[in-house]
Amino acid sequence: MANPLYDTLFGRHDGKDTPFLMLRDGAKITHADFLGRAARIAHALTDAGLKPGDRVAAQVEKSPEALALYAACAQAGLVFLPLNTAYTVDELSYFIEDSGARMVICDPVGEAGLTPLCDRLGAQILTLGADGHGGLMAQAARHEDRFETVAREGSDLAAFLYTSGTTGRSKGAMLTQDNLISNAVTLAEHWRFTQDDVLLHALPIFHTHGLFVATNVTAVSGAAMIFLPKFDVGALIDLMPKATALMGVPTFYTRLLGEERFTKQLTAGMRLFISGSAPLLAETHVEFEKRTGHRILERYGMTETNMNTSNPYEGERRAGTVGFPLPGVELKITDRETGEEVPQGEVGLIEVRGPNVFKGYWQMPEKTKAELREDGFFLTGDLGRIDADGYVSIVGRDKDLIISGGYNIYPKEIELVLDEQPGVLESAVIGVKDADFGESVVGVLVPRPGAEIDRDAVMAALQGSLARFKQPRRLEILDELPRNTMGKVQKNLLRERFGG
Ligand code: MCA
Ligand code: AMP
Q1: Whose C-alpha in 265, 328, 430, 493 is 20 to 30 A from the C-alpha of 150?
Q2: Which CATH fold topology does 401-498 show?
Q3: What class, spelled out in words, does domain 4-190 have in CATH?
Q4: Following DSSP, what letter does each residue of 413-431 receive, concatenated?
Q5: Burial level of 338, CB count in 10 A (0-12/13-18/19+)?
Q6: % of the chain with per-residue pLDDT over 70
Q7: For residues 178-205, b (16+ Cβ closer than 10 Å) or e, as one string?
Q8: Could you identify the atom of ligand 2 that is nearest to the CA of residue 408?
Q9: What is the tens place of the pLDDT at every residue in 102-151?
Q10: For residue 230, with 0-12 CB atoms within 10 Å meaning exposed, 13-18 middle and 19 or more buried, which class applies?
Q11: Phi, psi of 2 (to 5 degrees)
């Protein structure tokens, strides 16, 4: 194939009048229309001088045009780098500089803030608003709706997705065309997606879940999506009778269960509810089945690997587990010290290998070496166990990570900012149980001797530097942090103390 990713996901639907995106107002965008928009955007990008392999960073609201930008990058052989819309200019500057992006697409509202940075880095900037307007589409409109697909190999890069790390510095996970294709094809088959499906799409499209899992699976199977700008429980309930499948983080499911209108009758036409990105509580699984008769299908993945495991489509979907390794994916549980596999049933580090596993971290050979073994196994940082029937459970994390509403938050990144605040000697950031988001962020601060910490001033100081979802919901003050004999902060004790 000339361009495996574009051809597999999009090119095969060229010229078809079948629906691809359905919008809340009832408007339908066919495959042909969508691909026409993508082609125009591909022209605009190449006209701007971008060459295959160049990175296109995008911090844009979810819209059909934003999705077409992804398809356009695939068609033009560009590397797509989507960014969370909540990131501040401070956070963005690192991603744009580190990736060497030559083009930045941002919301018109963000343009003034990003222009000095882009000027300094020699990156071009174009706008794309939530309504699909802006400089990008103005450029695109000047071109025809056919674009000659740029030839690529399966091993060529398709996307960069930044994931934070325990050191606080984000790493650009390099995903190849083959990584994305293999997972899309496997999942579509595993979850029995066909062109008759209509996926309720309410996830953001700047992360693996909404962009690759939801979009690629829909695209590869010729199905359609009801494409909502964001999660809105009322909209989901209104539109569910028109859909056949939903993919969401656990918060979607707990919020749906909080609605009286969410009934068995409402879900009668649905064939599949999928959950991932964070642990689904067994009680949510049970309550969901009681209410709707459907068993949620839980799966497990990562930015670096796409999806690794899934509960079965047919057969038992076991609450509290993430199912079995997907076809083509190998998974083992190893001892952290020795790297050897632990006896069946015991807890250890989850390692995975397969065509889904990324190529490495951009310009970070040391980090890549530390997490991606030479034999191809990737150390996920998750702790797991495999039961006698082969079901994998995630029992904890070896990495210091908080997952709030499906967003990953690395405490170190927040601690670094808190430590700089006036009066703060040191800090520890923990995740505590939260009924809506699963976990929420609490910051524990230790004052410098004789200093007083002004909580409000600290919170205000975080506004410009950390995305809202990373900011602590609560700040606690302690004289000192509990440490073990090795001097390591005992976050478990902090969680016990402040978790209530
Ligand atoms: C919004 N806020 C949050 C979050 N989302 N705070 C903490 N954690 C969050 N996840 C902030 C808002 O800025 C707002 O701040 C306040 O919380 C209330 O917002 P609310 O209206 O309740 O939020 P929402 O807009 O309804 O969003 C909640 C959400 C959303 C629907 C759960 O966060 C979401 O769509 N999450 C999905 C994330 C996702 O796609 N993850 C996949 C990553 P203020 O106080 O200023 O009002 S990919 C991945 O993990 C791997 C690969 C995998 O396996 O999938
Ligand atoms: P990310 O770095 O955003 O790709 O998030 C990946 C992490 O999310 C994994 O390493 C897990 O810790 C977590 N995760 C994803 N799916 C699940 C799940 N079904 N259950 C528990 N944790 C999950």
Answers
A1: 328
A2: GMP Synthetase; Chain A, domain 3 (3.30.300)
A3: alpha beta
A4: HHHHHHHTSTTEEEEEEEE
A5: exposed
A6: 99
A7: bbbbbbbbbbbebbebeeebbbbbbbbb
A8: 3
A9: 999 999 999 999 999 999 999 999 999 999 999 999 999 999 999 999 99
A10: exposed
A11: -70, -40
Ligand 1 residue neighbourhood (C-beta within 6 Å): 203-204, 207-210, 230-231, 249, 251, 276-277, 301-303, 404-407, 437, 468-469
Closest CA to 67 of 24, 9, 124, 111: 9
Q: How far is the CA of 366 from the centre of ligand 2 (A)?
A: 23
* Closest ligand 2 atom to Cα of 208: 4
Find the ligand nearest to 473 CA.
1
As a residue count, the chain comes to: 500
What is the 451 CA–ligand 2 centroid distance (Å)? 39
pLDDT of residue 422: 95
From the CA of 319, the nearest ligand is: 2
CA dist list (Å): 264 to 252, 254, 291, 363, 475 = 17, 15, 6, 50, 41
Q: If you take atom 46 of ligand 1, which residue's CA is the nearest one?
A: 468
Say how many Å lie between the CA of residue 298 and the centre of ligand 1: 19
Residue whose pair of structure tokens reads 């991603």 in the numeric block: 95
- 388 and 398 Cβ atoms separated by less than 8 Å: no
Residue whose CA lies nearest to ligand 2 atom number 5: 302
Cβ neighbours for 205, distance < 8 A, ≥ 6 positions apart: 62, 66, 67, 70, 82, 211, 215
Domain ranges (residues) in the chain: 4-190, 401-498
